[in-house]
Structure formats: C-alpha cells, structure tokens
C-alpha cells in the first residue's frame, strides 16, 4: 500500500474514532437532566461530562442526555450570560441512568441561591469559572508557569479546618458544629375540671435517645431540644402482654406515687403491638436512599452506613425487592429493584459507594419514591429507607417542599424510615419532621450494635406497620384528679376534636413495637396550687354526683386505622385508681419512671421535682430485670457517665460533689 493511501486510511480512521460513540458491546451509562433559569427551561445550554469532555446541547424543553462509560464524573452546565454550574460526585453505574438538573443564575440577577442552603454550590461555581476559562483549547495547550501551577494547586486544595478551641476542662474541643434541634415547650399541668381531655399521637421513634447517648459519651453539652422524653422511654421495650383478640395491640395501665414527688401520682400506659415472625412478614418493596455527599465522608457516617445496611440485606427473602438510590451533587440509581436472594449483587453495590459532592436530598427523595411507586406491592411493605446525616443543602430542600411530597406519597401506601448517622451537621429536627409526615419512624445509628437493634432485632417493627394514625385520648375524672400533665410528646399533641377526625395524621405502630406514655397527676384533694383561669361569668363547671361516686381515675380511648385503611376503629377502657406501694409496682413502671426522670434532669425541667442521678440509678438498677440484650445495663452506665460529666463541668469554685 502506497504512503498516500496509508496516510488517507490513517486520517479516516482517526476521524472515525474521534466522532464515533462508545464501542459496540462496551457497557455504558446515561446522564440526563434539565437546565433551567428561574424554573423555566433554557434552550441552547451546554452540559459537559468531565473527564471525557462529552457534551450535549439542550433543546426547547431544556433537556439534555449524555452517554458515558461507567465511572465518576463532574457535570458542567453553562450558557453565555449565565454563571456556570459545576455538579461534582456524579456516579454513573453500568446500564444505569443518573439525573443531574442544573438551575443557572443570570449574571445580572441580583438574587442568587439562599446562602444557608447553596453556599457550597456557589463555591463550586467559582471554581468552575476559573477551571473552565483557563482550560486551553485542543489546538493550543500552553504549559502553565510554576507560579500559575502553585496558585491553581492552592485553589483546588480543600480549605484548612479552623483551629481547635480550648476546652473548659482541658485538652481541645472539636470545632463548633451546625447540628439542628427544635426548641421544646414543655407540657405544663392542666386543670382536670376546665380541660378534662388530653389528646396526642403515639410516637415510636428512638432517635433522640441514641443521639443524646452519643453526646454524653463525647462529654458534650446536651441541647434541651435534643431531649425528647417520649423517645427516651420508647427506646426500651417492656414486658406487656401480647396482643390477642380483634385489635392489633394490647393495652396495659398502672398507677402509683411519682418517684420524684410522692404527693403526686404517676399513670403508666403501655401498648404492645402484635408480634409477627419475620417469615410471615408480607413482601417488601424497599428502596434504600443513601446519602453519599461529601459530608458523609467520615468513619461514623458512610462506612458505618454500609455496614448497617449489610445487616439488613442479610435478612431479605427471595420475595423481597431492594433498590438503591444515592444522592450527592445529583441523584442516581445505583441498583435497580433486585430480588432479596441476590445478596451478593446488593452487597457489592453497597460496598462500591463513595462519598463526595454536595447534597441534593430533595432530588434523591423524589427519585426513590418514584421507584417505590413504579414497583408498588399491593398489601405489601412499600418503604423508602433514607440514611443520612440530615444535611439537605442543594435542590428542593425546604422543609415544606419535602413534607408536601412525602405526605402525597404516604397516601399511596409508601412509608418512610429515616436513619441518622454521624455528628457535626446532624439535622435532628428536620429528620424527625420528615419521618412523622411519612408515616414512618426515625432512629439514630451510632454503632454497629445500634444498627443491629434497629435493622435486625426490631426489623419487624421498623419495617412493618400494623396500625396507622394511632391516637390516644384521656378523659380525667375531676373528682379524682385536680390537674395532670403528659410527660413528653410535646410535638405530638392534638386538639380534642382531632381524635374523631380520620383526616388527621397521627403515629404508626410497628409489629412487636411497644409504646409507653406517662401522665403525672395532682390528686383532687391536694392543696398544691395549679395554673388556672378566672371564674367564668356565663356558665359554671360542676362535678357530677356520678363522677364523685365513680372509682375511675380516667377513661382511656384509642383510635387507629389498618395500614391500608381510611376508617378508624375505637377502643375504650376505664382506669381505676388503686393504692399500690412503689415497691410493688412492675419493673416496667419503675424503669420507665427512671428514664423519664433522666430526661427531665437533662432538660433541667421545671417539673423534675426531686429527680437526681442517685434516684434514677436506684430505680433503674432495681428494675433492670433479665435484660438479655443489655440495653438497660447500658442505660445505667449512661446515667453514671452523665453524672460524671456534670461533676467535671462544674464551674471553678463550685461544689465538688454534684447534686444528688
């Protein structure tokens, strides 16, 4: 073959390679999305995948699509007149599709993204401007000077962490964090004569206790908003009778003197959900929604998350289905719905997860719910399990947007479980709110043992709802009760009329779960002053003779719906006041009282009375019982550690011994 022919052949081959798509048979993935400005699609915008340089131009609908080989990419979205947007950490699996939407800001716009949510993205855009404008064209690639190399290297290096600050007890404390907790307005005493009804939604979340345990173990101050006493109490199971008969749970009540104020009474209410063996659970359609953003890059976050979900995967059955959606700078499907007996495939997908990029939590939730809806199992367990540190800082991230979407999906029978991980930017308040609105539950995972408790030991209760919209209403007999207050459940309180309103959302009860609530009561004959109002002008409130003759302290009513039903069922039973000596109460009564007192002490509650570490330890040690899993022994150790933390944190010149 002559040299001119060879040269022509080489040139043609080169052009063919240059313009050809991926080789036939080679595995590929897809990146697609929409580029918008102020919610409207942008025509003629460019999306480019880095590395590789593949690019696509948007049409009139603002949409683009790129076909790439599997791997990690940064997506650059740009259009003349707009600030470019750089989305990092886009993981494209073989055969998978990842959605990356870009909202561009016009350079003349006076308002940009909210700093509190989009500051990381704004910083990335600045880097994108420099990186892309400095990139030489393919025709001319000048070598940068040493000075330019040094400046570019310094720019791309992560910022140095702030210097550690001295700790008041010696050594160094970690830098200030941005964990988020809601303020708590503690329940006060109510007059049984003027306000005889107390109504609330049940709560089976346990995140508050596990999270506060982390803070105590680290010797950190405890924000009052982090202490939700009902979640402390409900972290522990109690030996209530099994559910029998027509209702999916049993009800137990007990009354005795309040340990922190013997002049008052303590009412203990316990619900036991019907226990269901794992083999008898309905088919599960689970979508794991996993946060792989840069904030998850620490040992207590993504590595622990992967180990925790491996424990759950090992419990899956052939009839179950598992899909995995991840989100960082973008949301994508890492694993399409896969039968539960293909554990090697599921575990391999978990093992390959890496952290990086900002946090497009809203987009991830939308995608996970869509997959769950597309594979909905009638009368099955359809659930999204979100694992995150709670830091939603890019995309549809406002609480109201996410709550609205989750409420819509729960009406389709798709429930939500949220598992929190890590510290530093743990958004407790947001995660609790989302779980409540999603007909689900929230837990905090701070160790592999806690992961086993939530995802293995209590898997039935965590993943299977047996009753939804469970509400309790108590009517107190003013002839027996002067005033009452519900301990905890502050963000679960309902109006009296909400009890009979089947449209009102309430808590869910899982298989085998226990729910415990405590009321503190001031007896009718007490001379203790309680908050009141002036005498009414136009009507009087009198105690009937029937109430005076009745031995009933109160009447307990419950309403609940089946998991897929819309009409509630009513249960009702009277509660008789019996004079039981504190030593004759059940271990469940005494241990729950110890946990409640601990919560009040950590909150520095106005109602803590004579609560002290010694009182709490005495109650807990005496009610520890068999404790096969060791949770109660761990509680005792935690109280002892909190006692020591309080002692070493005492101000200089203060008492050497802590209050007992």
Q: What this model shows, in words?
A:
The protein folds into three domains: about 110 residues, Immunoglobulin-like; about 250 residues, Immunoglobulin-like (Sandwich); about 180 residues, 3-Layer(aba) Sandwich (Rossmann fold), CATH 3.40.50. The N and C termini lie far apart (about 100 Å). α6 runs antiparallel to α7, α14 runs antiparallel to α15 and α15 packs antiparallel against α16. Strands 1, 2, 5, 9, 10, 18, 19, 20, 21, 22 and 23 form an eleven-stranded mixed beta sheet that branches. It has a five-stranded antiparallel beta sheet with strand order 14-25-27-17-16. It has about 650 residues and is an alpha+beta fold. It has 16 helices and 29 strands. It is elongated, with a radius of gyration of 29 Å. The longest helix is centred in the first third of the chain and has 19 residues.
